[in-house]
Amino acid sequence: MKYVWSGTGMVMVSLPILTGTAVSTTTSSFNNKTIERTESSVSERTQYLTTARNLLISAADAIERLMSSYKEIVALAGYTYRVAGMLDVFEETAQGIYSKATVIENEEINGIIEFRDGKPIAKGRIIYIDDPGNMSISLRAVPVVTPNCDIVVPSLTLCIEPGVHLLITGPNGCGKSSLFRILSGLWPIYAGELHIPRPLENKPCMFYIPQRPYMSIGSLCDQIIYPDTRDDMKRKGMTENELMNILKMVCLEHIAQR
């Protein structure tokens, strides 16, 4: 918008100025003699061209500032809307009247999700496996449903045995992250059964890595022992040599040397 608009304007302004053939004739008298001089208007045309160029550049900069301002205002409006919505949710939650807005019920949803008083009912079951020899994860006819009751997968049956490497691929919105939210208990199960190992000695059997890398505040040692603290490390008898072995397992021992 900036360069095409100003360039087109420069061409339109410069063509009549550069291709013009007009001349100016001046008459003067000296010692009772009349003298006529014909001068070219190149300097005047150059002046007009320079003035027009400056005006076009100023107008192009103004248009660019307007477009940039509109983009920034739209981004600011989006942030403001999210912050305002968050504050409204906090206020309603404090009053105990908050309820998540759901989509309109239809036959497809009613076949998978059961509603009561306009709210979905989580009828699925989470079964914890107490057998240390059985550390498998299995889903039996579990639908992947978002908190807004959008059905991503109507029924998912899956069994993951220890030692099995599984890679889930697909486009955005197909339910890759949603499956892990269900496994971690962040999202409810509206149907089917989920079998997962029970935590042993208050230690979880599964560890979830976020999609974005996060670093805790502290030293390299704090990153390795996270979420434990230095006191937890000493209480468990963890030494720096064991931490170095952990770094060697993941081929990052050069970081400690550096």
From TrEMBL:
Residues 1-22 form the signal peptide. GO terms for biological process: fatty acid beta-oxidation; long-chain fatty acid import into peroxisome; peroxisome organization; very long-chain fatty acid catabolic process. InterPro entries: ABC_transporter-like_ATP-bd (IPR003439), ABC_transporter_sub-D (IPR050835), P-loop_NTPase (IPR027417). GO terms for cellular component: peroxisomal membrane. Keywords: Membrane, Signal, Transmembrane, Transmembrane helix, Transport. The keyword Transmembrane applies. This is ABC transporter domain-containing protein. It comes from Drosophila navojoa.
